[in-house]
Amino acid sequence: MVPVAPQVSGYVTEVPVVLNQIVEEGDLLLRIHSRAQLDRAQRNFNRVEAIAVQNPGALSQADRDRATTQLAQAEAGVFSAEAELERARETLGVEGEDNPAIRAAAAALEQAEFNLEQTEIRAPGRGIVGDLQLAEGHYAVAGQPLATLISGEDVWVRADMRENNLGRIEIGDPAEVAHGSRLVTRPR
Hints:
This protein has helices at 36-54, 61-90, 100-117, 163-166, and strands at 2-4, 10-14, 22-23, 28-33, 120-122, 127-130, 139-140, 147-151, 177-179, 182-185. By secondary structure, it is of the alpha+beta class. Helix 1 (36-54) runs antiparallel to helix 2.
């Protein structure tokens, strides 16, 4: 069993797998996006406004105010990050590779590119998705497991048999293992 944990924090924007799904190495398990909070707040605000236009009495003013505030907070967060980036650009100082600000910016760029690569969590090998308890909108914390991948290489099958059936089973008898309505493996 391999815990699946992100290396970056952010909101889960896509979960293309389901519990107990068989995946192959490299299959996408989930995607994380740091701008998802703004996107979600914008969608929520749009829904509230549409309801308010269609049926003005359906929502309280507090509901509308809450959606407006959440959108404004998300926009402010993105605006603040963009302003910080611009401020860093303006204070770079003298040109050249020896400029400490340029070195720091290059290191920050490398880190940002690495973090971007880490927003897609892929299966490290063939296996079954287990202990998956998240959905789009879930906030993923770096290093905290979000699911488990059960190895597809070393598989144990447990069968609970009644004692009176054991006398009919011999070592080497063929067996079929079904997962839900799908046949997972057939004897050779």
